[in-house]
Amino acid sequence: SKAEMGHTCRGTINLATANITVEDSCNFIISNGGAQTYHLKASSEVERQRWVTALELAKAKAVKMLEESDDSGDESVSQTDKTELQNTLRILSSKVEDLSTCNDLIAKHGTALQRSLSELEALRLPPESTDKIKQVNERATLFRITSNAMINACRDFMLLAQTHGKKWQKSLQQERDQRIRLEETLEQLAKQHNHLERAFRGATVLPASTPGTGGSGKDLCCPAKGDLSDEDDDNNEFFDAPEIFPMPDVMGHKRTGSNISGTSSDISLDEQYKHQVEDTKKEKRTRIPYKPNYSLNLWSIMKNCIGKELSKIPMPVNFNEPLSMLQRLTEDLEYHELLDRAARCESSLEQLCYVAAFTVSSYSTTVFRTSKPFNPLLGETFELDRLEENGYRSLCEQVSHHPPAAAHHADSKNGWTLRQEIKITSKFRGKYLSIMPLGTIHCVFHSSGNHYTWKKVTTTVHNIIVGKLWIDQSGEIEIVNHKTGDKCILKFVPYSYFSRDVARKVTGEVMDPSGKVHFALLGTWDEKMDCYKVQLGTGDNGAEARPRAHEAEDSRVLLWKRNPLPKYAENMYYFSELALTLNAPENGTAPTDSRRRPDQRLMENGRWDEANAEKQRLEEKQRLSRKRREAEAARASEDGTPCDPYKPLWFERRKDPVTQELAHVYKGGYWESKEKQDWSLCPDIF
């Protein structure tokens, strides 16, 4: 049906882009140029040719439909069809009523005409008048016969239309009833599944939890670093809603229904922002408004998305946490002291151990965080100035929207610089979703000149369709010191139900340029990382000797351990101490800073309905800006005049001399603009 044109199921080949090739007299092949290929066999050459001709005609029609279709995607096809059908039925009904009225009028006037002519014939008139009257009478009789025939035909049409109309109405009602029954069944199944899951969790004996972790230290439900965006991107997915906890009356955060809805608040967002800014420089905040206990029916959202392209579905803030992707990227610096310690190391191999621990620590923030961050708008920025407290300051900017990409630069007076550009790509595999962050991370130490690079591992989101959402990290990270040639291989072991290994296990080896292993690393990406010195020796077979158990324990050094979560973190989106401070309003930040994003601020304050409306406004504003840029580029190409594509404000694209990759690198100027409070170059995105 037309409603299915907007989305496809697995195994579908789009005719508009299909390749149809003849193999031999009876066989032919249809493929999409990728993984999907059909080999078809006809009973004869004639039959094969009929199929190929029919498919080619259908392909031509599909290509024409594709060219004629608009790019709006705002209204589902099914809704259009429904409106069109209702309009057609309304017009048909009015036409049938008109025909019925005409039928009555023709019968009435025809009878009156016949009566008048009969009266004329009865009068005594001259002979020539009688002949004329007879002629008129014959014509009137013919007209009556024709009119009767037309009336009968119209009556038949009307009866037929009424009969079929009833059938159509009955069929439509049956379809509606069936759809309602299906929705109710699915909703009931979802409730039963949720009930069974809760009963199972209640019956399962859980291990003793560590303080401050809310009793779920080994819960498998942990979000990916760098979750996908939910706006009009090409890479958008559903994520299960996080568990919602009741809000205890502690720390002055008890809220009423009117507070949550925002109906009783007449203070503008700007005034709230100014009010919140006052104390930020004095001390960092240790709490945020508790997450409201809003119930969310996932099916009620999903059923309205049927027939829509996934990238066009506006996802509500109910699935989000009140931080942007730029702020989540900045959370990589939570354990910055690992890089401070690495900068003080004299041995490059020991330094590499701390860099490896820092690499693993960036995933620890994802353990309990099942909500996804806000997708940044193009040109959105986020600064974190901790020069006085921790010796570093950081800047992020959203440099691309399709595909979504963010550039990050951090400098420390303790002797290191970190920079990265991360793009997200994903592949849906049915039961799970693979998320591959693309881009290289660079860390340079000033005193030694050691330059390290590495890439992030693959994140797998399990139970996308049914079940409890949980996320795993898997793959290898190769950290290379481009100055000395030292190397570290980190292996993130994928979770297996049948494995006896500890969950989220990470192993690693630090080796010199010749390949000799000097340190072994062992730990988990959500708890800690240990380092063991490998005693270099020669065995009987000339192979490198591994340390025995007691020797390994003697040389063990704890490189990194995850900080405990703040008190009542389960009511505050499981934010860490750093995450709680990231969205705190600050004076002097750029007008494009994530802290100033209105939908995010409204969501943090518990006003989710207003946040959803504001989110849609911002997305629409961004879409209009993009269309305006595209129109300007099209006009420029027609006129032959040069047109600059979109360029980020604080980063510029350069070829990296070490990796030979094109990446966005910080070009300077932000902190100088902040000092002067000159933000004239900043775009109006909020």
Automatic annotation (TrEMBL):
Keyword Membrane belongs to the record: yes
SUPFAM superfamilies: Oxysterol-binding protein-like, PH domain-like
Pfam family, one: Oxysterol_BP
Region feature Disordered, mapped onto this chain: 584-649
Domain PH: 1-60
Keyword Membrane: yes
InterPro entries: OSBP_sf (IPR037239), Oxysterol-bd (IPR000648), Oxysterol-bd_CS (IPR018494), PH-like_dom_sf (IPR011993), PH_domain (IPR001849)
Coiled coil ranges: 172-199
BP terms from Gene Ontology: lipid transport
Listed name of the protein: Oxysterol-binding protein
Gene behind this protein: Osbp
